[in-house]
Amino acid sequence: MRTEVTLQGLQAALSPVRLARKSIGFVPTMGNLHQGHIALVREAKKYCDVVVVSIFVNPTQFGAGEDFEKYPRTLEADSQLLADAGCDMIFAPSVQQVYGNKPQLTTVQVDDIANDLCGKSRPGHFTGVATVVTKLFNMVQPNAAFFGEKDWQQLAVIRHLTTDLCFSIDIIGVPIVRDENGLALSSRNGYLSSEEKQTAIQIYQTLKMVEQDIKSGQTDLDAILQRGRDYLASKGFVVDYLEARTPDLKPVTDSQQDMVILAAAKLGSTRLIDNLHIKGIH
Amino acid sequence: MRTEVTLQGLQAALSPVRLARKSIGFVPTMGNLHQGHIALVREAKKYCDVVVVSIFVNPTQFGAGEDFEKYPRTLEADSQLLADAGCDMIFAPSVQQVYGNKPQLTTVQVDDIANDLCGKSRPGHFTGVATVVTKLFNMVQPNAAFFGEKDWQQLAVIRHLTTDLCFSIDIIGVPIVRDENGLALSSRNGYLSSEEKQTAIQIYQTLKMVEQDIKSGQTDLDAILQRGRDYLASKGFVVDYLEARTPDLKPVTDSQQDMVILAAAKLGSTRLIDNLHIKGIH
Hints:
2 copies of one chain form a homodimer.
Chain A: E1 2-4, H1 7-19, E2 24-29, H2 35-47, E3 50-55, H3 75-85, E4 89-91, H4 95-99, E5 106-110, H5 118-121, H6 125-140, E6 144-148, H7 152-164, E7 170-174, H8 194-215, H9 221-234, E8 238-245, E9 259-267, E10 270-278
Parallel strand pairs in A: 1-4, 2-3, 2-6, 3-4, 6-7
Antiparallel strand pairs in A: 8-9, 9-10
Helix pairs in contact in A: 6-7, 8-9
């Protein structure tokens, strides 16, 4: 496994891959890797000949007061995990490599779905994500790119921009990896105290409760979701949202249709997100 | 020369070109071609093995009340001109091919330089341009793309987005082609009456006057430009702007520096633009 830190190095390394007509699978990450990321790499290995993982903590997707500075940079441990998972190449550029010296004037904006849910409490976040993913897509020029379903809204934004901007890249969503208690793996779990970690599993519990209520035939979705919010608040969460959307993030009009329940809540200073896809009855 | 009207057709046609490691030069146009476009094709032929010209009247770069509907569609005449110029492939997609069936949520925005000059009087225009050029770049995946310097601001916007979004595409600006009277060739010249066409040459005359004033050592640039605006108005133009900028569209701080004089003015209902690059003394 090789590690490239410049665009020139990346392109030199990928050039023989392209000439050999091998397919390139791309897993963009911010590092501080866990088994959720590794599941993406394994999925990419199934689809593609060569797997490139980028490790780049992207400043433009962090808002003021968010954790850009303290976001863990753990390249050595990440490299070990990736080598074990069969990753072929790490691309770990500097901010200067990605954003250059001249002021950046260009942003990629995805309307509507980027302004809902997490977009409401994190203004500019998905513009930062969409812009850096567009840059990385153009740098790596992969055949397929792999994203975790934990960031369901991010995946929806990226699917949309890929189609809208006519990228010839397959976007593959990979199911959430959970720990033995059901907590969705996340780099931000590392910020939780052991007590908070115990509480954190209530997010998934709440999503399962909502699912059960829906599957038991209750039709008042607003009431179901409000009970879920109240439950989370009773456990000490500050709830940002608990909402139902169609898989492509449109409003749900029928309590028995295919839907995703999405949650974001703060525990202390740590913001956690999770979701559960509920297959519709009709 | 072949003509493709679908993305699938384009990609099938370009696939053997890429496999043969031939370079692809791309000339995006809205059709209704004239010798200014042909100069782009000839330049592309010099740089690249295969030249693709797109013909696509892009709805999203026309504002309300602009000439999208009446913009001339002249594919047959265009094809003849392009064949004669040595173009290898025309890509003439439908609006549906470029914008798809689903609502488009994604736009590419280039701040600052896109909000100046033409951007002021044509809100959203450069977002439409930047978005469609990003789409076309991803469809054609050229090695180099060729744009006329007549649309100096457009060229600056595209240079910026290409760098900012990390496209591996060389952007080549091609000098303005003028008729024997100095009128910059433009599809919109076709809207002018023969009398207006006589008047229209005064735009270039004005640019030359400004150049002469600067080269004669006059230093009050504001006064020089105001005389130019007054002159155009006296000839029957409604002046949108006559301004000086650095070549990358920053404010000019020294009347002897490298600069571009840019003009936009309406004659009747036809909006004309032109510019003149004045090489600085220091």
